[in-house]
Specification:
Blueprint (H helix, E strand, L loop, with lengths): L3 E5 L11 H15 L3 E7 L2 H6 L1 E8 L19 E6 L6 E6 L1 H4 L17 H16 L10 E5 L5 H8 L6 E5 L7 E3 L19 E2 L2 E3 H8 L2 E4 L2 H6 L3 H4 L3 H6 L4 E3 L27 H14 L9 E5 L8 H14 L4 E6 L3 H13 L4 E5 L3 H10 L2 E4 L8 H8 L3 E5 L2 H6 L16 E3 L4 H15 L2 H13 L8 H11 L4 H5 L36
């Protein structure tokens, strides 16, 4: 019998994605399955997820009324039932909590079309934790897992409810981004099935509110996060967001298990979303990808000019507010550089980027929205990726960029400290250099980093060496999943016999990869949002 582990999360590619969390859950669960672990992913039953899973079938109504205390929903809510199917790309078993009144709505998994958080998010994600507890307790048709692994605040009530139910099943909890904590009024706690005894300062109360994130940290058997640098940062007031004291007091500390990427999804040699394949030893296809990217974004086809990409959320966290003046300063200093921007986020920042494209229509192109195909082409066609951030638990985009031969320009925070090796300031790049790391949080700091990167772009031999370093590094989950397996062995002695005999060979072939779900309503892919006004 293989090891049986239940993952609890709000998203996983290819069924639903708003950011790196979805990528991690899809890639990690698939890797563990290939290594012989029977992973079941528990996700909310979003209609797109139900439509995208393979072989979906109902395994019966979910009797959350059997739990004590129970989850209370307003009259008129749909009955809850569990659906079970398979992920279309990896074959991982997926359990979907089907409740249309909670999950069948427009917008993203967390917000409406105007970007406002759904007011019933506490109920929506408490329901997920109750479903996880029911599965762990053996109250469903699914086999009870030997270990539960909850991911980020959306699943934060899972360890609490499991402990309140008296379950001995160990539950790990991974912090993917401590800044988002699931804070809600204490008054809603009874309707969520949270016992009153757990609501004090020593429980999940946080400055007069309840915190789903604190619940996960307080009651999990083990707490992890997604990079070694971030694991140290969250113990400080600057990055701890008020939970640094709690994290520092954990008996086992905060364990760091670095993220990986799905190396089969992000491989320029075999990526079906690219117009031409290429690899570290032969970059001719990258020039074709650059031409395609310029065409898609309406930029002049200038193969020898540096093309800088931005591909992330346009928010304060991502320094998007600083990027606009930094780009303008860079355009003034370097007449040849082009910028291609793909993302969505804060309305005022989106408007600032669109206005920038209007001022420089032949040098800046902006697409507000998200499409997976464009994201792949962005990394493949760009020479540089600008990825500033005020905090960054891991930073998948710079890793994707390096994999595709685009050199990242990143802030010295979080996981990017661990993954990007700075070129330095000498006459030759530092050994093993893969990009450019900068300090500070001003437009001048960002533009100075861009100037340094553009200087090295003028040295083709040094540039090619840094590209090879990034493209040939080992970023896949296979090199990181063993750390999770070691933690599972430590937490669940019953898993040891199974994990000691997991097969190294890949699982049987599975159907081809399914479609991905956009993070927000995308702008049309062709043409990008480019306003044709005065020339730069």
């Amino acid at each position: 019998m293989n090891a049986n582990v239940l993952y609890v999360a709000a998203e996983a590619v290819p069924l639903v994605k708003t950011g790196g969390l979805g990528d991690v859950l899809g890639g990690l669960s698939g890797c563990l399955r290939r290594q012989g672990v029977d992973v079941t992913l528990l996700l909310p039953g979003y209609p797109a997820a139900i439509a995208g899973a393979l072989g979906v079938r109902s395994i019966g109504a979910l009797g959350l009324h059997e739990a004590h205390p129970r989850l209370e929903l307003a009259p008129g809510h749909s009955p809850m039932r569990l659906l079970v199917g398979r992920m279309p790309d990896t074959g991982v078993q997926v359990a979907l909590l089907d409740c249309p009144s909670l999950y069948d709505r427009p917008g993203s998994p967390y917000t409406d079309n105007a970007g406002r958080e759904y007011p019933d998010n506490p109920q929506r994600f408490a329901a997920l934790a109750h479903a996880a507890t029911a599965i762990a307790a053996g109250r469903t048709a699914l086999p009870a897992p030997q270990l539960v692994h909850a991911h980020d605040w959306h699943a934060g009530l899972t360890p609490l409810l499991m402990r309140a139910a008296g379950l001995a099943t160990p539950c790990a909890f991974t912090i993917h981004n401590l800044a988002f904590q699931g804070l809600y009024p204490l008054g809603v706690a009874p309707s969520l099935g949270v016992p009153p005894a757990w609501l004090g300062p020593e429980g999940i109360e946080f400055w007069g509110q309840m915190s789903f994130m604190k619940a996960g940290i307080r009651y999990a058997s083990r707490v992890t996060t997604v990079s070694r640098a971030y694991a140290a940062e969250v113990l400080t007031p600057r990055f701890g967001h008020g939970l640094d004291g709690l994290l520092a007091s954990l008996p086992d500390g905060v364990h760091a298990v670095p993220n990986g990427i799905d190396a089969s999804q992000w491989d320029p040699l075999h990526d079906p979303l690219l117009p031409a394949p290429y690899a570290a030893g032969s970059l001719a296809g990258k020039r074709a990808c650059k031409a395609a990217l310029q065409a898609r974004f309406g930029l002049p086809p200038e193969p020898d000019k540096p093309l800088v990409a931005i591909g992330n959320r346009l928010t304060h966290q991502k320094m998007a507010d600083l990027a606009v003046p930094a780009i303008e300063a860079t355009l003034a200093a370097h007449r040849a550089v082009q910028f291609a921007v793909l993302g969505c986020g804060d309305a005022d920042i989106e408007a600032a980027f669109v206005a920038l494209a209007a001022r420089y229509p032949r040098r800046v192109a902006v697409s507000i929205g998200y499409r997976e195909e464009t994201a792949h082409l962005l990394h493949a066609g760009a020479d540089l990726l600008l990825h500033g951030s005020r905090f960054e638990p891991f930073g998948l985009a710079p890793v994707y960029a390096m994999r595709y031969g685009a050199l990242p320009v990143v802030s010295r925070v979080g996981g990017m400290v661990d993954t990007v090796r700075d070129a330095g300031r000498g006459h030759v790049p530092a050994p093993g250099a893969t990009g450019f790391v900068f300090d500070g949080e001003t437009p001048a700091d960002v533009s100075a980093a861009l100037r340094r990167a553009l200087h090295w772009f003028g040295d083709p031999h040094a540039w090619a060496a840094m590209q090879r370093n990034g493209m040939t590094a080992r970023w896949g989950w296979d090199d990181r999943a063993h750390e999770y397996l070691a933690m599972y062995r430590d937490l669940a002695p019953s898993l040891v016999p199974q994990l000691e005999t997991v097969a190294a060979e890949a699982a049987a072939p599975v159907p081809e990869r399914g479609r991905r779900i956009p993070a927000c309503t995308p702008a049309p892919d062709v043409p990008a949002t480019i306003l044709p006004t005065a020339a730069a």
